[in-house]
Amino acid sequence: MKKLIKKLTSQVLWQDKVMSVGIIISFIIVLTTWLLAAQSELEGNFTPWHYTVYFGIDRVGPWWYVLAYPLFSSIIFIANIVAAILLYFQRRLFSYVIVSTTIVSLLFVLMYVLSLVIFVL
């Protein structure tokens, strides 16, 4: 744990533009996902949380199901950023790939939550 904290606070890591910008963009995407899910108007005991073109609303559940997607994006963010930081000092290219795929996967979750908030809720 001390090794991870030491690597996380390393000046070398934060001076690297790819890593610092990637981590900041990922954090902004996760924060946006949480804000979108939190601002959605949830009414009643059951809320629609999945929509398809063919069937319309096909899944309903408790209001807190909407918060599963931001939680999923937070887990992706934490796991991948920790892996990227641990690999940064040994294999920089792998850490760049991890950070970039983190951004892409978080964008997919953000798009899903955005479509859920706009079209379903």
Structure, described:
By secondary structure, this protein is mainly alpha-helical. The chain has one domain (about 15-120). The chain has five helices and two strands. The protein has helices spanning about 1-10, 10-15, 15-40, 70-90, 90-120; strands spanning about 45-50, 55-60. It has a two-stranded antiparallel ribbon with strand order 1-2. The longest helix is centred in the C-terminal third of the chain and has 29 residues, at about 90-120.
Furnish the topology, listing elements before pairings.
Blueprint: H1 2-8, H2 11-15, H3 17-39, E1 46-52, E2 56-62, H4 68-88, H5 92-120
Antiparallel strand pairs: 1-2
Key attributes of the depicted protein:
single chain; 121 residues; mainly alpha; two-stranded antiparallel ribbon; 5 helices; elongated
Q: Which sequence of strands runs across the widest sheet?
A: 1-2
**Helix/strand order, N-terminal first:** HHHEEHH
Number of strands: 2
The number of helical elements comes to 5
Oligomer: single chain
Per DSSP, what share of the residues sits in E-state strands of 2 or more residues?
5-15%
Kindly state the percentage of residues in helix: over 70%
Instruction: Kindly report how far apart the N and C termini lie.
Output: 41 Å
- Biggest β-sheet description: 2 strands, antiparallel
